[in-house]
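Table S5 (text form). Sequence records supplied for joint modeling of the two-component complex.
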Amino acid sequence: MRCSFKYITQLAFVLFLFPTIAQAACLADGYTVVFINGIRNTREEAEQNKSELRDILGVNFNNQTIYYATGYNATHLQGGGDLVEAALPQFNEYDLQTILMQMHDEVQTRKLLLVGHSQGAVYANRLYEYLVAHGVPKESVAVYAVATPTAYVAGGGKYLNYQADTVIYDPLLQVGAVVPPLPNVLVKDWWDNPNAKGDNLGHSFIDVYLANFADRMTSDIKSQLFVLRSTNATTTGGCFEAPAKTLAYQAMGAGLAVGEPLAVGVKVTGQVGALALGGVIKVYDLAYAAAGSVFGLFGSKEDKDNDRAAVTTAFAAFKGVLGSSLDVADVNQLQKEYGDKNLGSAAMLAFLPEEPQAVPEVLGTSTQPVATTTATTTPSAQVFIDIPEAPAVFVPDPSTVHLNSPAFGGPQASQQAPAPVLVAPTIAFSNWTSPDGSQFCSLVQRTVDVSWNAVPNAAYYSLYLEHASGGPIDFGTTTGTAWPATLTFFGSDPTTVTVVAHDTGGGSATSTMLANTALVDQQPPSIISFSPAISATGIATTSAVALTFDEPLKASLVTAANFTLFKLDSIAGQIAVDSTVSLSGDGTVVTMQPNTPLTYNAGHRLAVSCAITDLVGNHPASSFLLFADLVTPYFTTEVQ
Amino acid sequence: MNASGVLERVWLWVKWPVIVLAVGFVAFAIWGTMLALDKDKTDAAVAQIHAQKLTLADVVGANLPSVPDQAENDATVAGIDTNNNGIRDDVELAIFAKYPTSAKIRAAALQYAMAEQMYLTKVFNTGTWKAVAEEVGRAHTCVINAGANRKEVEVLVSNTQLRKETRTKAFEFITSHGDARGEPCDVALNTLPN
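The corresponding structure-token record, covering 834 residues in total, follows.
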């Protein structure tokens, strides 16, 4: 009964007294970056976005710690609710209040930066407005918007919008009164950025914005962090006043809780429109990607450098056959300026006559046709080069004939210059060693150097190590023919080493080799005879102890520290006996000669450290100590 | 009408409201008790999540496990953890194999592996997910301080389809959160020699 009363009391507390305002600090030192995710993310992606942001920004700035928090923007009604919210952000009060309540205890620094992606950027604006109205000084909070659908960034914050963002600049999504800002990173920037390694088309925070524009994002964010001030910091109380959990809020939460299961069925009429909109978006994405493939303007997930290399290689091949006064530098420049990467461009450029027209000066202010002269082997027609420029919405025009279109004479896959075929490298192991110093019996540690032969046409090599019990570990790449660091193996776990040779065109050849087992002795050393014998009595006080091993030991490890004789003592437990330790010529017998006579009628024990090894580094198999029992002696000396 | 008759008439009017209120109160009390019991269970699990720490012995390999049987290890989500330090044996050995000469990187990677493993084994509601996410966030800061590789550890921990799916399922409980407070590394990096 008393227990029930306790629970009922707790319940009453939970129901009637929340929100409980935690007495958290609002410290002057440090920064808090709150990431607010957008729509069309899985839940894992929402969290992964923040992790990636932390990876690039780091955890220290201006000699202060950067703390991170996720302001989770929940997906409702199987995504249908998000689409409605994205189009009509005025209906997102429930999520905003939830984020604010949940953020309240997480934000413990006065300086606060809200980073919002996509719809999360809209929320970041609203959060900013709430915070400023509820206790946060304007100079202490800022917003940074990534892929924002709205031109307004609260507090004059910065934004990062990519010209080829397929959601923000998708005309089908421009519904309602929300107008996106002009893109401030262009496709040309993607080409010009040597560190770009992500997709050249899309909306993803990680694959598009972080992968391609991490430097820009880092610079923007740090510049905003730098100007934040710790006005009115306090060591007690929160950083802002959290909203109350009103009845209306709870009713909305209950409504969503009921709506979620219904949405799974996809048959609820109220959501059909939103889901249909989602379907349209998906279809549009697919069509867009298909158009990109046909016209060669966009690829899928291809590495930009590989694209450039492929075009360069193809250009060289075509030039060899057809002749052209242009060189590779011209091709690369054109590629940069046109945002183009298709092999067709290489073919067309190679088709240009010996005295070509001036290379078109691109960089106009709008999409416009550029006339070029074509070779006689191609249809006599004008060729239009698509020049995406801000602020135009970046959608390929199907009526435009692109230079790289296979339909216009660009190469088919079979026409591409064949890449040299790589042969698999031959792996070799050398210098197997077992480092001294381990104190652990269970730890068998060996090191080895790995090398391989130079593979013709290989630009670099990557190395993987895989234990039988786990997935492969990527050790990285090298341009040399030996791994620059010694590899270490633990235990007798069968381990394979894989070396992959790569060429510059994306070709590779792989070789795998079992690394450790069967190559070296795996047997631990063990003691095969004791002198005195175990449990012997009446041993002379001048006797030495001799231990015979089944295989030679590493001499450098046969030391007094690793072989110790103890006298059992009723008070101290055990007292070390000062001894001289030596190893026989064949390395199998260890002798411990006490430097002074042993005590009469006393029990003795022996400790052998697991630090000893055989000649190839195997430690003893089982324990740190032999005869660890302090009661039962190894032997007992004679009575005086 | 005498007093008894009046009372009888009043009772006739208030009987059903009183009964409804009484039944409602009992239901409310039962529901509240269940809620409180659930909260106790969550609180205990959250405390356990935050109490799990890496030790120096883990970092130096004093408790290094033997190589597990792969099939047995991958047959379950939790896998094999013979030394009960919260890090799966295969993951622990892989980290030692890759970083034998840097105790600092091992310390960070092992702590991150321990936290990531809890996504697979400790999450059953929003409260427990949040606790794990807070520990993962703290470990992530440690990873950055040590110069270790977060993604490498994530691949090691979620190395089977079953584990990947379990991790994804755990994220159904995602909510807003920060990092667990306190020092980012369980074993202070400046106490390690290399």
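Note: Chain B is about 65% helix and 0% strand.
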